Amino acid sequence: MATHIQAVRGMNDYLPTDTSVWQQIEDTLKQVLASYGYREIRIPIVEKTSLFKRAIGEVTDVVEKEMYTFDSRKGESLTLRPEGTSGCVRAGIQHGLLYNQEQRLWYTGPMFRYERPQKGRYRQFHQIGAEVFGLKGPDVDAELIMLTARWWKALGIADFVRLELNSIGSLKARANYREALVAFLEQHKEMLDKDCKRRMYSNPMRVLDSKNPDVQVLLNYIPQLIDHLDDESREHFQGLCSLLDDAGITYTVNQRLVRGLDYYNRTVFEWVTESLGAHATVCGGGRYDGLVEQLGGCATPAVGFAVGMERLILLVQAVNPAFKAMQIIDAYVIASGQDVQSAAMQLAEKLRNEMPEIKLMTNFGGGHFKKQFIRANKWGARAVLVVGEDEVKSGHVVIKDLHSGDQQTLVQTEAVAALRTLLQ
Ligand code: HAM
What we know:
Oligomer: single chain
CATH superfamily of the largest domain: Bira Bifunctional Protein, Domain 2
Radius of gyration: 28 Å
Number of strands: 16
CATH class of the largest domain: Alpha Beta
Strand order of the largest sheet: 1-5-6-11-10-9-7-8
Shape: elongated
Distance between the termini: 53 Å
Bound molecules: histidyl-adenosine monophosphate
CATH architecture of the largest domain: 2-Layer Sandwich
């Protein structure tokens, strides 16, 4: 017997029961994005490897060990996108969207990282992200955070996520801090693990989010980034904090929050949760005012975030039981008797013409009356429309409310109004 071919490890199938929940959640997210005037951008899944190396940084986990990189037939190095910001900036520069303009954009789709799969961490995962270009004040950072807070409320998870915030300052401030940090780490080299020693000179900030317990002890004594912040960044951060205070959004300032990608400056933030078993980040983002220029565009301030869809959906399902899979259909059309299938299908088509919003399924393959009702229930229909031989002759239809059990026989032209009332 032939062996079954399984999906690639860490890459999931999403079956119809999953996709109905995904669609419902995505619709909520998109509706909120539109309410803030954000517009969708669609960018390719494959980009040149050099884009991610330059944007994300050579000495990051993503670029060092997590990218799916391969050569094209012509020998050009290409990579499955591990995130959306790099491609968004590339597209913005390429199409002249960024020069002297404001852009509020969003995107969604699959991302790829070769990580060890576990609950909430996959090799193909999905993000929904937003990027704003051309605005440098803290007001837009606050807007992005307010937008995400509105998402959590709409999904019923606001009590289960917590906002962590930090400022990592300007490039220059970070260079000053870096010197102080390296000097400190050199003095305590014996407490560092192999990874941290390697990164001590190439990317010392990454030592700050080491998960190694010994290193974490040392981290309690490291120089603080906040003491090295430049005045403008300090003011920017204070501006953001006061806007969030005014909006009633609570947060904690986490001075060790540096994020895993190199392009950030000033604001960095994460929405974290403890409700998925382990501590998990549902959403991460920040400012990256230098990236557009670094990728060849004109200097353009920018800020954004991305949410991991799988984590978000796991969280919604874990804490908001009211969020059930969508009812698949509103109504089910049953044909009862000989030669009535065509009439039943025609009635269904007429109803779809009149009620484009209706979700209507027609029974196929015949079957006992009772069996057809069981199918109607299986798909979650609220109403059943019965078309039998008598109804076809007289132009009538029987409509049954599956919740109350009430049933009425109507001329077919009255079916639309009756269904509308019933499905309200
Ligand atoms: P990130 O923190 O690398 O940031 O990813 C954002 C979110 O994607 C994470 O908080 C997490 O929810 C989800 N995520 C990341 N890796 C995985 C994985 N292997 N499996 C499941 N979910 C995952 C970025 O990607 C930045 N581009 C965000 C950004 C946009 N910053 C500015 N603009």
